Amino acid sequence: MSQFNQGHDTAGLQSIKLDRRQLLRAAAMSAGSLMIPMTLSGCASNVPKGSFDDSMRPNAWLEITPENRFYLTLDRVEMGQGTYTGMATILGEELDVSPERFLLNFAPVGDDYKQPEYGLQITGGSSSVSSNWQRLRRAGAEGRAMLKEAAAKVWNVDVSSVQTDNGDCIHPRTQQRLSYGELVGIAQSISLKSEPELKTQDQFKYIGKQRVRLDAHAKTFGKAVFGIDIEKEDLLFAVISRPEILGGKVGSFNDAAARQSSGVVAIFEVPRGIAVVAKSYWQARKAQEKLEINWVPGEMGLLSSADISALYQQKLADEKGSSIRDDGDWDDAVDAAADVFEATYTAPFLAHATMEPMNCTAWLTKGECHVWAPTQGPDIARALAVKESGLSHDDVHIHTTYIGGGFGRRLSQDYVAEAVSVARHVDKPVKVIWSREEDMTNDPYRPATQHQLSATFDAAGKLTGWKHKLAGPRIIDYFARDAVGAMVPTWVPQMMVNGLSKVAPGYAPDESPVEGAADLPYAIDAVDVRYVHADAGVPVSYWRSVGHSQNGFVVESFIDELAIKSKQDPAAFRRSLLSAHPRHLGVLDAVLAASQWGANKTTSTGEKIYQGVACHKSFNTYVAQVIDITADGNQFKVHRVYCATDCGLVVNPDVVQAQMEGGIIFALTAALYGEITLKDGRVQQSNFHDYKALRMDEVPEIIVEVLASNESPTGVGEPSVPPVAPALANAIYAATGKRLRSLPLRLDV
Amino acid sequence: MKFTVNGKEMSFTGDEETPLLWVIRDEFDLKGTKFGCGKGLCGACTVHLNGSAIRSCVTPVGALANLSVTTIEGIGSAEHPHPLQAAWQALNVPQCGYCQPGQLMSASALLAANPSPTDDDINTAMSGNICRCGTYPRIKKAIHLASDAMAKSVDLAVEVKA
Ligand code: FES
Ligand code: FES
Questions:
Q1: CATH fold of A227-298+358-433
Q2: What does the pLDDT look like over A59-86, one tens digit per residue?
Q3: A746 Cα: distance to centroid of ligand 1 (angstroms)
Q4: Which residues of chain A have a CB within 8 Å of the CB of B18?
Q5: Cα A171 to Cα B67: distance, rounded to the nearest angstrom
């Protein structure tokens, strides 16, 4: 894929031949904070301290106590995607301990825990299993090898004759057992001579089989501790009034009445707005109601959705855009075409609306800063806490928690920065809680985008060219401001970090706007994909499946249009263009069979069922879906979603299944209802009555097939999202003859 | 202001307008009940008031004198789980888990009133509870599983472990 930068044709910048991931990695390396490779024990001086003095700590992920307790240090956060279960399964497999025996520690900020591809300690990109697959297996294998050597020493037998079984070493002749815990004392001082061998797939006991979800128990009894549940002695509560006008500022404010309100501890201005600190959350809210604040617009003025859409349109008309992919010759295809077909697609801003609203607890005490945050990026959180508190990295401690839904929202650390800015003003721990309304109107949104699609056909009706030109903002411009602080070494003075965070956004490449568009899999002679940078200033962020969430819709809807123009069955048409992509074909064929594609199906009450199909690869995972609907005038009902996925080797089959189901429902919510709009600078939606979420009575039947594969495991948290909207739009077309090219999908507008 | 929570008498002397949600969470330190919307729209804060499911975020504590409140901490324990809690684990229902206490409280009120609910009954009783992670299909299955187990007096907790 070719790369691009902000704006277009910026000479000099074109020479940066790095993609976002490479750039982040390069920055991390040049900054000296390169991922420390797994160290063999004996020289593991940089392994973060464990929780117990006499425990065995062969590497940053594993700790075993003499009492035979097993700890997994989870370096990816658990926000529902099943990473706790996944990591324990992988570690337990090679250590030979049942995953269910692992107790959980949430990792502190540490170089060992950086996601190697991004150079940041973040949970995103559906990457936890894929990026930890090898290193956690090595971590487990290393622990097991040391314990076996310890047992061999005790028994005075050859190490290769020692067997293991679920946390025990077994004597080769007597079958006597020593638990790992009993061996910890000796194993600690063992130096491995070579890297231990990993199991082969046929030896797996837990991978592919582990069914029990390890966090299900705590989450069923109300015992899982989320960020909002953090309790501290003398805890204070804060709420913040943030600008009602997007990008606006405090003009003036009067807090006289609010100060009289009961329980109020302090009221003051912070960079983001006016903070009210009180003894209880409710008291803070009551006092907040009495604040009089005069907001003034910022640089964006009083923006409305129509202005943004006009800006995109203008830019698409005026600018050629940067070339992202250029196969064959589009201009020749147009010249030779017997027919050129064009369509415009749009996607709106979307809020993340995580079930747990944003919150963060911070405490500045005795020269240290403690932050308890449900965060997808603890190292970025630390960088911001350092900046806000003025303390050094060593004095700032980030404690992570269970997360009540992430979907990308908690990669942005605004809520952490502002909690620390509040904590500076009080001498007790303080928890900032956002109301749902504050959460929804101050979200960094999924970008709105606009897409011009064109296709050429020759005289024989064969598809010869594809052009996709899209306009929208770059997420990295918003993300890099904060992330830079976590990428440079900790000794870089804050002033320099601040400077870097101002310039980095424009320079860092960003492939996210075009992911899912640039990698069009269909065999077409001329493919021209172009990106036009258009940014109205609305803060944006990663949202479950990122650029694929818009491009999946656009590409898989437009290819459907082309199939119909070619008078071909949409599934057969796709198949004919996918012969070079066996894994796409694999999921497509599986879903076609499961859904009885093309059969004349009716509901139990005799209504005709219409079907739509879509097939999309994201995060190296392949997903195809068929959606069954019925329609009556302007109403349609989604009956069934069939889904087939190929995500490589499956670590936890039921987690994959659950992620497919959950992603489909998340995407249906967006496809049917999702839209954040602006009017005169104000976000129009505020809570679940006007930003609706799918509810129990609207959920269709979901049938998931996970294909068997021996390829390396790939992510499952996001890839079921992109195909939903196009499969549904295609089904609506089949039922009504109406082509919906704007999200959300509404027949009645 | 006195009322019982999970069978224990509790008292609260602050502002009677304070929603029950914040009193149980921050005064009584029962953190299982969650804040999701504050407007009665999402069900994350669901508890039982004299056995019926209510939204604690819009229930002023002043209205509760002498009434009895049950929270997620009151319906079952690890040793003696509610059949729904056993079913929830058997079917790996939770994802992020944040909505689940509210889901379980709505579901347990449903089963108490209607031990063998149909799909439609479940839809009606549960559609006030949002799950952004999309665990609805499993919630529905788990309610049926618990209902069947209760009808046959099967102890799911034992079944699950076996
Ligand atoms: S928090 Fe009470 S219904 Fe949403
Ligand atoms: S499990 Fe996450 S909101 Fe329901």
A1: Aldehyde Oxidoreductase; domain 4 (3.30.365)
A2: 889 999 999 999 998 888 888 888 899 9
A3: 28
A4: 280, 282
A5: 63
Give the pLDDT confidence of A261-281 residue by residue, as tens digits. 999 999 999 999 999 999 999
Calpha distance A437→A429 (Å, rounded):
24
Q: Is the CB of A405 under 6 A from ligand 2?
A: yes
Distances (CA, A) of A381 to A388, A389, A396, A400, A413: 10, 12, 10, 10, 6
Cβ of A702 and B137 within 8 Å? yes
- Closest residue (by CA) to atom 3 of ligand 1? B40
Distance CA(A445)–CA(A442), nearest Å, equals 8
Which CATH number among 3.20.20.80, 3.30.428.10, 3.30.70.120, 3.30.365.10 corresponds to the domain A308-348+447-475+510-736? 3.30.365.10
CB of A736 closer than 8 Å to CB of A664: no
Cα of B84 to nearest chain A Cα, Å: 9
Test A687 with B140 for CB contact under 8 angstroms.
no
Distance between B39 CA and the closest CA of chain A, angstroms? 8
Q: Which of B15, B85, B93 sits opposite A262 (nearest CB)?
A: B15
**Domains identified in chain B and CATH numbers:** 2-74 (3.10.20.30), 83-161 (1.10.150.120)
A13-219: CATH number: 3.30.365.10
Verify whether the Cβ–Cβ distance A219 to B78 is below 8 Å. no
Say whether A280 and B39 touch across the interface (CB within 8 A): no
ipTM: 0.97
CA distances from residue B65 to A94, B6, B61 in whole angstroms, order as listed: 57, 15, 8
Ligand 1 atom showing the smallest separation from residue B55 Cα? 2
Decide if A227-298+358-433 and A308-348+447-475+510-736 have a common fold: yes
